Amino acid sequence: MNLRRVVVTGIGTINPLGNNTAEYFENLEKGVSGAATITLFDASKFKTQFACEVKGFDPNQHFDRKEARKYDRFTQFALVAAKEAVQDAGLADGENNTVDSVDKDRVGVVWASGIGGIGTFFDEVVYYAKGDGTPKYNPFFIPKMIADIAAGHISMKYGFRGPNYCTVSACSSSNHAFIDALNLIRWGKADVIVSGGSEAAINPAGIGGFNAMQALSTRNDDPATASRPYDTGRDGFVMGEGAGALVLEEYEHAKARGAKIYAEVVGGGMSADAYHLTAPDPEGAGAVLAMREALKDAGITAQEIDYINTHGTSTPAGDLPEMKGIVSVLGDHVYDVNISSTKSMTGHLLGGAAAIEALACVMAIDKGIVPPTINVSERDPQIDPKINLTLGKAQRREINCALSNTFGFGGHNSTVIFKKVR
Predict the structure, then answer these.
(1) DSSP string of 75-122?
(2) 52 is known as an active-site residue
(3) 192-199 and 107-112: which strand pairing?
């Protein structure tokens, strides 16, 4: 089968390091931590009292008040990131009017969220529980909560009538969205797909639930250094929130429009650990399979990879299996690549994580800059000291191929590979 080429022509984000892509990558390059004491609710009685919140976000600056009330926070983030990406791709103007030259029947939306409107769910159930038992639910309760609604709202905003749905696979969700979008365009089902993911779980339910699992860092005395992948003192991940969006487009379609091309999406791999509810396979078997499948799909060898943005959540159980998997797949080439975990700065956006990490890969290719891994004060001795974890400071190098890993509870593994277009 003669598969069509797929490229990235638009990028957008809102996340703990920036409310647009320029701010985001500037702070990635600087090695800025997005973690601080939680302001979205009173977390003083919680084991974890900090997170990586989106800074300075006022939904009323993006939507009118009536409209904003119809959206859960995760959908608000999705619409903001998608707007930047769609406008960046030249598919819409500053007033959100789509350009006439684009066939809206051939433009789709594949969006991701691991949890969806958990904030809306929490608020509505608490409101009911405080009452006398009489049901007084908001009529927008269900439409705000369901995980697929962000994809629906993006399509309605711009009139995109192509394939439209949501992928849900915990922290792998956004990479699965990218892989689906890649294949839909390859197979001729669409010419353009707005794809990405969003999450907004910094609320009592999200923080309390992950605390109960002992998954979150409790370094309340120093939040800025709490996310420390590959450090011997890592004690759990730091919750993040936000969204990332990529406009994926068929190569010839993009050239015909004169669109800016950031990178090519060349392959995706998926697998399951089939091992444990939350813990990864200790030898990284599922990660190995996902990476090898992505390389095979891309038609490249492991020796062509220059940069790997790892899942790297800063959990004691999670970081080492992935590193074992990378070594297994790359062999001696592992000493020639740059590896970093941008979660050390952004925290973990759950279903939105892969979206902003794919964006980091695309920007790294475009700018020739590898973002660092911060907060490593004592490197885990189980990691080969010759492996370049890009510690503390961004590094400049030409990046022809970048690989992005994300893994989720339930044993879901996904890998996407981006390549420079020449």
Answers:
(1) HHHHHHHHHHHHHHTTSB-TTSPBPTTS-GGGEEEEEE-SS-SHHHHH
(2) no
(3) parallel
Active site residue 62: no
Condensed to tens digits (0 to 9), the pLDDT of residues 144-156 reads: 999 999 999 999 9
At residue 10, the 3 state secondary structure works out as strand
Place of tokens 């590896």: 339
Alpha-carbon distance 416 to 308, whole Å? 10
Chain segment 220-263, per-residue pLDDT in tens: 999 999 999 999 999 999 999 999 999 999 999 999 999 999 99
Domain residue limits, the chain: 7-263, 267-419
Whole-structure pTM value: 0.97
The reply to whether CATH 3.40.47.10 applies to domain 7-263 is: yes
- Two tokens, residue 75: 């959908």
Active-site position among 311, 361, 401, 412: 311
Strand partners, 12: 245
Confirm whether 311 is a catalytic residue: yes
* Catalytic pick among 171, 176, 361, 401: 171
Catalytic residue of the set 153, 176, 253, 348 = 348
Instruction: Say if residues 7 and 254 touch (Cβ distance below 8 Å).
Output: yes
Please state the separation of Cα 74 from the chain's center in Å. Answer: 13
Q: What is the CATH number of domain 267-419?
A: 3.40.47.10
Give the integer Cα–Cα distance in Å for 211 and 218: 9
Q: Do domains 7-263 and 267-419 have the same CATH topology?
A: yes
DSSP 205-221: HHHHHHHHTT-B---TT
pLDDT above 80 (res 300): yes
